[in-house]
Amino acid sequence: MKKVILLCAVALTTIAFAQVPKKDAALTAAPAASKPAQQTQQTLKPAPDVKWSDTTHDFGDISQGSPVTHRFTFTNSTKDMVIITNVKPSCGCTAANFTKTPIKPGETAFVEAKYDANAVGQFTKTVNVQFGEDMQQKTLTIRGKVEAKAVN
What we know:
alpha+beta; Immunoglobulin-like
Protein backbone atom coordinates (compact mmCIF):
# COMPACT_ATOMS: atom_id res chain seq x y z
CA MET A 1 0.00 0.00 0.00
CA LYS A 2 2.85 2.41 0.88
CA LYS A 3 4.50 1.67 -2.48
CA VAL A 4 1.31 2.56 -4.35
CA ILE A 5 0.97 5.88 -2.49
CA LEU A 6 4.64 6.69 -3.12
CA LEU A 7 4.32 5.88 -6.85
CA CYS A 8 1.21 8.08 -7.10
CA ALA A 9 3.00 10.98 -5.41
CA VAL A 10 5.95 10.67 -7.80
CA ALA A 11 3.64 10.50 -10.82
CA LEU A 12 1.65 13.57 -9.71
CA THR A 13 4.85 15.55 -9.11
CA THR A 14 6.19 14.60 -12.54
CA ILE A 15 2.94 15.60 -14.23
CA ALA A 16 2.84 18.94 -12.33
CA PHE A 17 6.38 19.88 -13.41
CA ALA A 18 5.78 18.78 -17.00
CA GLN A 19 2.87 21.22 -17.24
CA VAL A 20 4.91 24.33 -16.35
CA PRO A 21 4.73 26.60 -19.40
CA LYS A 22 8.04 27.13 -21.18
CA LYS A 23 7.50 30.89 -21.00
CA ASP A 24 7.84 30.77 -17.18
CA ALA A 25 11.05 28.76 -17.44
CA ALA A 26 12.53 31.37 -19.78
CA LEU A 27 11.63 34.14 -17.34
CA THR A 28 13.43 32.42 -14.49
CA ALA A 29 16.56 31.90 -16.61
CA ALA A 30 16.71 35.49 -17.89
CA PRO A 31 18.21 37.16 -14.79
CA ALA A 32 21.19 34.78 -14.76
CA ALA A 33 21.87 35.37 -18.44
CA SER A 34 21.70 39.15 -18.04
CA LYS A 35 24.45 39.36 -15.37
CA PRO A 36 27.39 41.49 -16.49
CA ALA A 37 30.46 39.52 -17.56
CA GLN A 38 32.62 41.08 -14.83
CA GLN A 39 30.42 39.58 -12.11
CA THR A 40 30.95 36.07 -13.42
CA GLN A 41 34.62 36.45 -14.35
CA GLN A 42 36.97 38.63 -12.32
CA THR A 43 39.10 40.97 -14.43
CA LEU A 44 42.60 42.07 -13.54
CA LYS A 45 43.17 45.75 -12.84
CA PRO A 46 46.39 47.78 -12.81
CA ALA A 47 48.42 47.55 -9.61
CA PRO A 48 48.07 50.23 -6.96
CA ASP A 49 50.23 53.29 -7.47
CA VAL A 50 53.29 52.09 -5.54
CA LYS A 51 56.85 53.18 -6.40
CA TRP A 52 58.95 50.28 -7.74
CA SER A 53 62.76 50.51 -7.65
CA ASP A 54 62.70 48.59 -10.97
CA THR A 55 60.29 46.30 -12.80
CA THR A 56 62.78 44.64 -15.16
CA HIS A 57 66.13 43.07 -14.30
CA ASP A 58 68.79 41.79 -16.72
CA PHE A 59 71.17 39.24 -15.18
CA GLY A 60 73.43 39.39 -18.24
CA ASP A 61 75.53 36.24 -18.83
CA ILE A 62 75.27 33.58 -16.13
CA SER A 63 76.75 30.09 -15.80
CA GLN A 64 74.57 27.07 -16.43
CA GLY A 65 73.46 25.45 -13.17
CA SER A 66 74.07 28.60 -11.09
CA PRO A 67 70.73 29.93 -9.86
CA VAL A 68 70.36 33.71 -9.76
CA THR A 69 68.04 35.87 -7.66
CA HIS A 70 66.83 39.45 -7.93
CA ARG A 71 64.84 41.31 -5.31
CA PHE A 72 62.37 43.86 -6.70
CA THR A 73 61.41 46.42 -4.06
CA PHE A 74 58.63 48.95 -3.85
CA THR A 75 57.45 51.64 -1.47
CA ASN A 76 53.77 51.98 -0.66
CA SER A 77 53.16 55.55 -1.80
CA THR A 78 49.38 55.27 -1.43
CA LYS A 79 47.31 56.42 1.55
CA ASP A 80 46.05 52.87 2.16
CA MET A 81 47.60 49.61 3.25
CA VAL A 82 48.64 47.37 0.35
CA ILE A 83 48.55 43.59 0.48
CA ILE A 84 50.22 41.20 -1.95
CA THR A 85 47.71 38.38 -2.32
CA ASN A 86 49.49 36.21 -4.90
CA VAL A 87 52.78 36.00 -6.79
CA LYS A 88 52.85 33.75 -9.84
CA PRO A 89 56.01 33.06 -11.89
CA SER A 90 55.46 32.35 -15.60
CA CYS A 91 57.07 28.88 -15.44
CA GLY A 92 58.48 26.21 -13.14
CA CYS A 93 62.08 27.36 -13.69
CA THR A 94 61.37 30.52 -11.70
CA ALA A 95 60.48 30.65 -8.00
CA ALA A 96 59.21 33.65 -6.09
CA ASN A 97 59.12 34.96 -2.55
CA PHE A 98 57.44 38.14 -1.33
CA THR A 99 56.40 40.26 1.63
CA LYS A 100 53.43 38.47 3.16
CA THR A 101 52.31 41.08 5.68
CA PRO A 102 50.22 44.20 4.92
CA ILE A 103 52.39 47.11 3.76
CA LYS A 104 51.52 50.41 5.45
CA PRO A 105 51.83 53.77 3.64
CA GLY A 106 55.52 54.70 3.40
CA GLU A 107 56.78 51.15 4.07
CA THR A 108 58.99 49.18 1.69
CA ALA A 109 58.27 45.60 0.57
CA PHE A 110 59.74 43.11 -1.87
CA VAL A 111 59.08 40.46 -4.50
CA GLU A 112 62.02 38.13 -5.12
CA ALA A 113 62.48 36.13 -8.32
CA LYS A 114 64.91 33.18 -8.46
CA TYR A 115 65.80 31.63 -11.83
CA ASP A 116 67.30 28.10 -11.84
CA ALA A 117 69.57 28.65 -14.91
CA ASN A 118 69.58 25.03 -16.11
CA ALA A 119 68.65 25.62 -19.76
CA VAL A 120 71.33 27.15 -21.99
CA GLY A 121 70.36 30.23 -23.99
CA GLN A 122 68.50 33.51 -23.72
CA PHE A 123 65.59 33.71 -21.28
CA THR A 124 62.87 36.18 -20.41
CA LYS A 125 60.54 35.27 -17.56
CA THR A 126 57.77 37.17 -15.82
CA VAL A 127 56.39 37.21 -12.31
CA ASN A 128 52.81 38.43 -11.91
CA VAL A 129 52.14 40.15 -8.59
CA GLN A 130 48.52 40.46 -7.49
CA PHE A 131 47.41 42.99 -4.90
CA GLY A 132 44.25 42.94 -2.79
CA GLU A 133 40.95 41.16 -3.23
CA ASP A 134 40.18 42.98 -6.47
CA MET A 135 43.16 41.28 -8.18
CA GLN A 136 45.15 44.38 -9.13
CA GLN A 137 48.21 43.16 -11.03
CA LYS A 138 51.80 44.21 -11.79
CA THR A 139 54.15 42.21 -14.04
CA LEU A 140 57.87 42.04 -13.24
CA THR A 141 60.41 40.75 -15.76
CA ILE A 142 63.78 39.00 -15.46
CA ARG A 143 66.05 38.17 -18.39
CA GLY A 144 69.54 37.07 -19.22
CA LYS A 145 71.61 34.49 -21.05
CA VAL A 146 72.69 31.13 -19.63
CA GLU A 147 76.13 30.12 -20.86
CA ALA A 148 76.99 26.40 -21.15
CA LYS A 149 79.19 24.98 -18.43
CA ALA A 150 82.79 24.44 -19.53
CA VAL A 151 83.64 20.73 -19.70
CA ASN A 152 86.91 19.86 -17.96
